[in-house]
Here is the input.
Amino acid sequence: MKIYLNGKLVEKADARVSVFDHGFLYGDGAFEGIRSYDSRVFRLKEHLDRLYETMHTLMIDPLMTKKQMSDAVIATLRANKLKDGYIRLVVSRGEGDLGLDPRKCFGKPNVIIITDKITLYPAELYQKGMDIITVPTVKNHPNALNPQLKSLNYLNNILAKIEANQSGYNEAIMLEENGYIGECTGDNVFIYKDGVLATPHQGRLKGITASAIMELALKLKIKVFEGNITRHELYNAGECFLTGTGAELIPIVKVDGRVIGEGKPGVVTKKLLSAFYQLIKKDGVKYDV
Here is the structure.
């Protein structure tokens, strides 16, 4: 496996950064998870736009233009001869001292691109649907840590994932501090009922896959609503599913022991999943392996 590290493609065993890197010490950095399908990187521009917005807020200069970053992603996929893969793009603040002060870093961020395969959930769950729960760990308050920042600090999500795993579940819903539905540990949440597809507006990351699904819904003449969603509304939805780069679109058939709809993937969920699979065949940056 070849890893992109600061302008060079190196072997996996040689892909190393200093233990003084602020990304390692403090989660001080940004990342993106991206997918390629049949030698086509899905919505690479949108992913890079989000990455650069996060870095701008964090005041991290990657010392690379978006075009250079895009070229580096493609070069890494080619080096690993991957037509269908998962891309993890990481930019940390770089090496500094043991203190918090980012001014003590040397101004040389670490840019890392890993291309590999990923499977978040067993294949059969996409056919029969998945059970999930809500957990005690709530989402970080948006005024403390804005959910639009896709930073390397995922401890909030990991704590919720631990609670899900300890209860025997693969995924969990995290509530906002006011009790409304926020998002899952790594996925966006959608519910469908009475012709309306709804997803939380505040307190969630603006997912690239989620945006694609909402666009597809509008093309299918399905109304889309972004706003506050309660657990009561979730429990009584006709359909529910999660979206994310890793998860793609996975149906949810039970939440907190409550059966959702008919207890199986719904008609609208299946339509959107089919439309999504058609979209990834034509939407993205094409490359040759």
